[in-house]
Amino acid sequence: MDPSHTPKKPHIALIPSAGMGHLTPFLRIASLLLSRNCIITLFTPKSTISNAESDHISFFLTKYPQVKHLEFDIIPVQASGNQDPFFVQYKAISRSSHLLRPLLSSSPYPFSAIFCDLLTARSIAAISADLSIPYYVLISTSAKFLSFMLYLPFLVSNPDKFSINSTEVQIPGLTPLPMKSIPLPFVNPNHLLASSIIENVGSIPEAKGILVNSFKQFEAETFSALNNCKVLNNLPQVLPIGPLQAYDIENDESQCLSWLDNQPEKSVVYVNFGSRTAMSNDQIKELGHGLDRSGCRFLWVVKTSTVDKEDKEGLEELLGNSFLERVKSKAMVVKSWVNQEKILEHSATGGFISHCGWNSVTEAAARGMPVLAWPIHGDQRVNAEVLQEAGLGILEKTWGMGNERLVKQEEIAKRVSEFMNDVELRNRAMKVGEEARKAIEHGGSSDKAIMEIIEKLS
Question: pTM to 2 decimals?
Answer without folding.
Answer: 0.91
